[in-house]
Amino acid sequence: MSLPVSTEPVRIVRHPDGFVELRLDDPGRGNALDLRTAEALRDGAREVAAGPGGAVLLRAAGGSFCVGGDLRAFACRGRETGAYVHAVASAAHAAILALHELPVPLVTAVRGAAAGGGIGLALVGDLVLAAQSARFRLAYTAIGLTPDCGASWFLPRLVGPRRAADLILTNRVLTGDDAERWGLVSRSVDDEELDEEAHRTAADLAAGAGDALRAAKGLLRAGAGDGLRRHLAAEARSIAALADGPEAQERMASFLAARGRPKAGDGRAEARASESVS
């Protein structure tokens, strides 16, 4: 389905197949989360939740799914860093909750980099498809921060506490194939087949037995919502408190200085952005 050019970082597309697509649409920035994008994601997720069709597909434009937080937006705020990071995390967390609580199946499709907050956003799906070349990296501790967007809640439940600790503490990189073996995603598919497979999966779910699918999802999610809500609040407090501290401020500044500022149109821009985190 062709889409008109948009300057909005998040788009909603209602497909004739009966499913609704929520699309991150700021590929030049690797779909990084600054406050504008996080708030657009929150508002988009809530709009989709009000009319989700038979299924929802979450995916992203460009070569990266979501590279996490926009460190350049974080690092230039001095004493306001913590408050800004808390605002970004809170908006992104409202989106995570809205997506987690959808009554219909949610499919996420991950291409390229999923880093920092992009990890939690990817894992909120009921079915998670990843391109074989996808790269999953937490990366928070490298800049003196802790996970947000539910990453520290989803990971132990998906891969177990030992592997979750490995991913969070060492910033190990997983490919799409690795992520399937670890149980992080539902399945890994050829890069060129990801969009078609994601579309087909969402359309098939939308055409399925709607009442049964909603009831089955309700059983799978039973009791999880309140726990996730409390955990997201704790994540937001933790990352904001650390962002105000000297260690994180120094690490973020060093991280950005080592890479330099990508120029507009520079083919390396998205690769550099893929190492951002929220």
Automatic annotation (TrEMBL):
Coiled coil: none annotated. It comes from the Bacteria. Residues 263-278 have a biased composition (Basic and acidic residues). Residues 258-278 are annotated as: Disordered. GO terms for molecular function: catalytic activity. SUPFAM superfamilies: ClpP/crotonase. Pfam families: ECH_1. This is Enoyl-CoA hydratase. The lineage of its organism: Bacteria, Bacillati, Actinomycetota, Actinomycetes, Kitasatosporales.
